[in-house]
Amino acid sequence: MAIDKFLIEASHIMMFARSIGDDNPVYHDEEYKSESGCEGIIAPPTFAQSSAQFDPDYFLRPKTGGVGWFGSGKEPTGLKPSGSGGSGGGGAAAGLHAEQHFEYHLPLKAGDVLSATTKPGNSWEKESKRAGKLKFSESVTEYRNQDGDLVITATGVGVQTERPVDS
Amino acid sequence: MLKASEIKVGDTHTEVLVEDLKRTQIVQYAGASGDYNPLHTDEIFTTKLAGYPTVFAHGMLTMGMTGRMVTNYVGDGTLKKYGVRFTSQVWPGDTLTSVATISDIREEDGESLVDLQIETTNQDGLAVITGSATARINS
């Protein structure tokens, strides 16, 4: 995955914070000054994951132009997704999300413009009782700001299961 | 922002993240994050094709809600690291509680830091996320 422009926008941060049930004013009120010294709107710790919105090849988003989608319409499934595509902040690929780690190098603020590049990391296999053979794969995404400075390093681990996970 | 003189190893901070998680909140997260995997929002696909009892939450929704507990405790913009493992799925109707426990208070490169162990559990006491975080504190 490579993302040229990940615009950090106040309204996107507000919607993202709402979706995780966080009404902290530091995510929607530009006049707010937090006790820890933050001024202006900042992004919540897991916001980098929404870079998927800016990944042109992100495969977990329905596309226009006659490209099939694997969710249900008239039938329980449409088309299978084509290719492995990217994975937003790194990780889930075509399977389930097993782990996610963030390292924060600089504050992420509304108005920043990030770019991101992802490299594959380790991969390994494991047997499990709840889902059969598990295939894990790691990806590391570096987010840099408009000055080229490293802002966030995100490491995701995705897992392909042999069968649905027993609950 | 936490102050080194006011905290000690073993201190905990607990928050209820969500009660009776609604499918609509999962839809909200799909829209905001851009992850439209039908496993999270498409009941027909998920039950008839994928073989799960119902849709389930994005792991990143639970990590996001857990992050809210962490930032409420350590303060805005103080995190250096935050990482989790997704240990069980989160289903509509779940009530989640998250606990941060101070595991270390230390100095590194002239900064005062706190290390936290994190666990989010559902209404049955099953861990859905385990993880850790490191934040800056006042010395």
Strand and helix map with partners:
The complex is a heterodimer of chains A (167) and B (139).
Chain A: E1 2-7, H1 10-19, E2 96-104, E3 113-128, E4 132-144, E5 150-161
Antiparallel strand pairs in A: 1-3, 2-5, 3-4, 4-5
Chain B: E1 12-18, H1 23-33, H2 43-49, H3 59-74, E2 79-86, E3 96-108, E4 111-121, E5 127-136
Antiparallel strand pairs in B: 1-3, 2-5, 3-4, 4-5
Write up this protein.
The complex is a heterodimer of chains A (167) and B (139). Residues 81-93 of chain A have low confidence and may be disordered. The longest helix of chain A is centred in the first third of the chain and has 10 residues, at 10-19. Chain A has one domain: Roll (Thiol Ester Dehydrase, Chain A). Chain A is mainly β. Chain A has one helix and five strands, in the order E-H-E-E-E-E. In chain A, strands 1-3-4-5-2 form a five-stranded antiparallel sheet, with no helix packed on it. Chain A has one helix spanning 10-19; strands spanning 2-7, 96-104, 113-128, 132-144, 150-161. Chain B is of the alpha+beta class and 139 residues long. Chain B has a domain at 4-21 and 59-136: Hotdog Thioesterase (Thiol Ester Dehydrase, Chain A). Chain B is built from three helices and five strands; from the N terminus they run βαααββββ. Chain B has a five-stranded antiparallel sheet, covered by helices on one side. Chain B is elongated and about 55 Å long. Chain B starts with 11 loop residues before the first strand and ends with a strand. The mean pLDDT of chain B is 97. Strand 2 of chain A pairs antiparallel with strand 2 (79-86) of chain B, so a sheet runs across the interface.
